[in-house]
Amino acid sequence: MSSFPDIWNGPCPLCREEAEHSHFFTDKFRPYYRCPVCTLIFVPAPWQVTAEQEKARYDQHENDPNDPGYRDFLGRIVPFLEEYLETEGKRGLDFGCGPGPVLGQILEGKGYDMSLYDLYYRDDKSVLEGSSYDFILSTEVFEHLSDPDATATRLFSLLKPGGILALMTRFYEDQVSFKSWFYKDDETHICFYTRQSLSLWAEKKGVKAVFRGKDMVIFKEARSDNGKYEE
Fold first, then answer.
1. Total number of domains constituting the chain
2. Which residues are CB-neighbours of 91 under 8 A, at least 6 positions away?
3. pLDDT tens digits along 40-60
4. Domain for residue 208, yes or no?
5. Regarding beta strands 159-168 and 91-95, do their DSSP bridges make them parallel or antiparallel, or are they unpaired?
6. Which of 13, 31, 40, 227 reaches 20 to 30 Å from 181, CA-CA?
């Protein structure tokens, strides 16, 4: 097995704190490091796959938008979103929609005006420029990002005041064996979040993180007339 540094120095990809990130785990492909500040687990750039390799992996996925199981898996985030969405909120963006924009279809069927973006399958940068959305969804995307802070910050800049950013990504819990955790086994997954890491990021940005289950979180301004965001 290759030898990897015990410490990875530099800014955390999420909280941006300059720190000595300790070696957390190594499999036969790559090392994983953990931020001592926010607890994010990440794979540094030298061991990340290339864009070409990532696209090839995505092309192998069988994410049929007509598959009821796949629609149900992604669609779980819709009622969670609607709990925190103002009734007049009608314009949304599905960021990282993939080749089959399931959530876009589901939400358009509910009367929402949806825009779609995907780096590999729908690279229409016009939807990321000067737009103003009531909500943005990003499902099974943030685990692939080498700079999640920059991406999330940009997405927030596209929201109207009071807008919602809703993410779906599997949260790591310390009682789970990382060695046997299935979510790390996809080589395109390079950032692994805990509730603590996302809560700390939200605090730094001045927003509230509301979690649901093992893989969903909503970010919105902490202040709310109905108190929902103070959970």
1. 1
2. 112, 113, 115, 132, 133, 134, 135
3. 999 999 999 999 999 998 887
4. yes
5. unpaired
6. 13
